[in-house]
Amino acid sequence: MVDNSATTVSCATTVSCTTAIPCTTTISYKRRVWRRFRTHRRGMFGLAMIVVLVGVAMTAPLIAGNVPILCHYQGAWQAPGVVDCLRRFPILDRVIPPSYPFSKAGFDAKEALSEDDFSLWPPVAYGPSETTRVSLAGPSKRHWLGTDEVGRDVFSRMVHGTVVSVQVGIVSMGIAGVLGIFFGAIAGYFGRWVDAVVSRVIEIVICFPDFFLILTVMVWLEPNITNVMVVIGLTRWTGIARYTRGEFLRLKEMDFVVAARANGAGAARIVLRHLLPNALAPILVTISFGVAQAILIEAGLSWLGFGVQPPAPSWGNLLRSAYDHYRDAPHLVYPPCIAIFLAVLAHNLVGDSLRDAIDPRVHATGKVKV
Amino acid sequence: MIERVLRRAGWGVATLAGVYVVTFVMVIVVPGNPFASGDRTMPPEVVRAMEARYHMDNTWLYFWEYLGGAVRLDFGPSFQYRDWTCTQIIGEALPVSVALGLLAILIAVMVGVPIGVLSAVRRNSWFDGATLAMVLLGISLPTFVTGSFLLILFALSLQILPIGGWGSLSHLPLPAITLSLPFMAYIVRLTRVSMLDALGGDFVRTALAKGLPRRRVVWDHALRVAFLPVLSYIGPAAAQAMTGSFVVEKVFNVPGLGQHFVDSALNLDRGLILGTVLIYAAILIVFNLLVDVVYVLADPRSRSVAL
Fold this sequence. Notes:
The structure holds two protein chains of two kinds. By secondary structure, chain A is mainly alpha-helical. Chain A is built from 17 helices and three strands. Chain A has a three-stranded antiparallel sheet, covered by helices on one side. In chain A, helix 8 packs parallel to helix 11 and helix 13 packs across helix 14. The radius of gyration of chain A is 25 Å and the shape is elongated. By secondary structure, chain B is mainly alpha-helical. In chain B, 41% of the residues are buried. Chain A binds chain B through residues 200, 203-204, 206-209, 211-212, 215-216, 219-220, 292, 296, 299-300, 303-304, 319, 323, 337, 340-341, 344-345, 348-349, 361-362, 365, 367-368, 370, and chain B through 11, 14-16, 18-19, 22-23, 26, 29-32, 120-121, 123-124, 136-137, 139-145, 148, 193, 196-197, 199-200, 204, 208, 214, 217-218, 222, 236, 243, 246-247, 250, 258, 261-262, 265-266, 268, 273, 276-277, 280-281, 284-285.
């Protein structure tokens, strides 16, 4: 409690400080949490891994692909790899035209480009669906992680599978975050019957098994990965809502909120400017664990064959096909296992450290003497 | 106390009714005809007769009939397994899942709580570090990976346990351990944090100052308080474990309830969908209620707070 009140003072001074009150603390709450977070090596390691993961997902065609990043083809400079990379983003795919003739089906850039043409290739020059003649080969200089049962480069499939996991995390927790924060905020701030209604709705939602909901929606709509992400988001908001509600209940009684209300601030202003910024860190903790869960759910679904449909790559279905060929090529099992583990681990580490950074009670050393 | 439990139970029934309505609407809204899909295609008049038999032409009648049956645990005929009623199917699968789930939760608590306590007492020691590593492993590895690993190790390489299936005691350990790992990891983490909290409390200092042996202070005084958050976690966790994990059942080929959640949804088997969801929700609600009651009994402080 002591720490909480200290937090409030600094928040009140940074968020709604008037010139009449001398500001003694100059470091904002957010910055203090970040400072404490930075001292956690595990958390920073997790954060670094997440950054790498997102980076790999965003630049997948530049790391592994069957078109060059930059080349001189028939007297013109072209960057088909960069175009491919950019065109995977929502709005850019309408603005940027595909690079002709590289985007044409059946066009083989490796044969079309002669020795004299300048070309800069991705480190692994194979697309995720490009088949070669060597199947179930071990790791080599050409295929870093070997090839699968139809001769596709496993490294390339792993890199392009990253996109799915990152997307699942962002989309599902984006939806869950918006829903959870909204319902948690109105329940915690307005209390009374709003709280009662929201709490009942949450109780009903958690009574549904995730897998059942996801599968029903997939039968209902077409089974594609976007629907999976949306359903994970629609089922996973309850935890965030509960956290937000609890934080709001705790915060709304505090002096800085009372002061804001006395100054004539409306409900929207109090919620958005005063309560939400202070409740954001604990909410981020649940979101961080939520992303880890979402990645696990997607991997499980794809592993069972309900998620990403082959030939599109995802870590889950890569692991599935690796299982099927375990006797011939056991080395194929490790990359997806390790990737799933590291991605989930990274989010768990960040969540853990962030929680410690918010609540230094747990973090403080030398307090417990037993 | 009794009044409180009754009120909670009343809310539980209301929640169950809400779950029924929502599931029913979902089942009705999902397009597709369970008789038209599948391997056997039937002539239209047969389909019509079947629809009439299962009251598919009259949604309201179906709603009330099913509800009336469900109250008596009669979930009607299954569309997908023609010769079975849903109650028979659930009756076959549920005991399997419950046995597996209870064992898994038991393992998770019996192993997880002591490890959590020890790592809190010896915080920042090598034991604490090793525990943290194991916890992170348990939380971050999907069950299909840990399950397959155990399968390869104990069934294929060492050949001391069967590869999968159900029927004898030797089929139990591998799926139970696989299922328990994520729960165990979470319980260790929860116990450690709340134990650190409890050990910093004044009552621990007092107990030590009185000259009580440290072992008793830790395992009796502090753990009694620190176990409460674990207790409220066990409720939903046990319900989840007992209603079957589809992945674990798939890996070890266990005929539990998890497969029916998936099959019924994929086959649009309305009776079975409603039945399995209601059973899942009922178990979850009952366990939360149980935990609430035990919580009040275990923690005198919570008696003054309205449930």
